[in-house]
Amino acid sequence: MSSTADSKGCDAAPKTEWPELVGCTIKQATEKIKAERPELNVQAIPVGTIVPQDFDPNRVRLWVDTVAKVPRIG
Fold this sequence. Notes:
This protein is about 15% helix and about 15% strand. By secondary structure, it is of the alpha+beta class.
């Protein structure tokens, strides 16, 4: 029996990061994270936003830098 760190045995630690979601939409990323860890609070934060530096083990921040709508004057 193998005991590799990435095995999905009953003692496997819960996932804490999702590098495969880089480039996905906010909706896709949120749905994937909530499907795997429904207890987490997922927040979409624009890149450059000042946020508290506290550690919250129940929070995932999605750093967003994609223009979602056409920029317009007015």
